[in-house]
Design a protein that fits this description.
12-stranded antiparallel beta barrel, 3 helices, 307 residues, mainly beta
């Protein structure tokens, strides 16, 4: 927990002022609001729904409470790709896709490339201003392409921590017009997240989605159902001059559920690492790596004997 608190402070240090940026947590597959380099198995279906509660001030300084509902549907293809759709309430539908370039190994991160917000609406977003118009971003929010690296460290260490790092365009970027008084992201478009697993069915998530700091938790009920909760846009808590009447400058509370079904056809035979990764058996993964290491040593010794 000390590690999570320290990383939370580091994440918030990137922020020095307010910015018009927001999204609905758990509205897309991934961590909280960032994509990860993981995909569904071939013919496996995943779908989820999320509920986001938020508040803001009216002109008379009274508080207004509201909520938003979102959802997504995904389909795994050939153990290499995943396609799906996202629904952001009144914002409508958009498509998303990702492909695994490199599968995760014991010491090798998974690498995926993908695209979110595949739609004709440049400012694809649920939230609207007081004139009931979509917020105008400095960067188009549609066709948000990205590359992301994911690595789980629990398989060769005693740290149950998974790290996700990526870079994207579109919704992952700040406005071109932001100066030093805006969000200070060391690399514009960069995003990242941490997932700490204190117990087998419990996870704590911390992320920077390129513009906002988010923290959340997940609970795995069984192999098919996972419950999620998050507090997003945490940087708003440390800003003294934010506009409380602007819904985009207030923290939000999100709750979600994700359900996975299948695979239904053409079940594939996974490699030992992939199989143990999906069953979260860290001990057997360590034993597998030991066997591989000894096998490599035996091969080298055999080569020397031959020569």
């Amino acid at each position: 927990m000390r590690t999570v608190r320290i990383l939370s402070l580091i994440t918030l240090c990137f922020v020095v002022d307010s910015v018009i940026a927001s999204s609905l947590p758990f509205s897309r597959p991934g961590l909280i609001d960032i994509p990860t380099a993981t995909i569904l198995q071939h013919t496996q279906i995943g779908f989820g729904g999320s509920f986001t509660a938020f508040s803001y001030e009216n002109a008379d300084s009274t508080s207004e409470n509201d909520f938003a509902i979102a959802g997504h549907l995904e389909f795994g293809l050939f153990d290499r790709g995943q396609v799906g759709i996202t629904w952001l309430g009144s914002a409508g539908l958009s498509a998303d896709a990702r492909v695994i370039a490199i599968n995760e190994g014991t010491h090798v991160p998974a690498i995926a490339v993908g695209c979110q917000n595949i739609t004709g609406e440049e400012n694809y977003e649920f939230f609207r201003n007081t004139n009931d118009s979509l917020y105008k971003y400095g960067e188009s929010q549609n066709f948000s392409a990205y590359i992301v690296f994911s690595k789980d460290f629990k398989y060769f260490s005693e740290i149950p921590l998974c790290i996700h790092l990526g870079y994207g365009i579109g919704r992952f970027l700040q406005s071109k017009d932001f100066d030093s008084s805006g969000i200070s992201n060391p690399i514009k478009g960069a995003f990242g997240g941490l997932e700490y697993q204190p117990a087998r069915n419990v996870s704590i998530m911390l992320e920077w989605d390129g513009r906002d700091a988010n923290i959340g938790a997940g609970y795995v009920l069984n192999d098919n159902v996972r419950f999620l909760g998050a507090v997003t846009e945490l940087e708003q808590l440390i800003l003294s001059d934010r506009n409380h009447s602007d819904v985009m400058q207030n923290i939000k509370f999100g709750f979600g559920v994700e359900i996975t079904l299948g695979p239904f056809f053409n079940r594939t035979t996974l490699t030992p690492f992939e199989e143990l990764t999906r069953t979260y058996d860290a001990e057997l993964l360590r034993k597998l790596e030991e066997i591989r290491s000894h096998a490599r040593e035996d091969i080298e010794n055999l080569k020397r004997d031959i020569h």
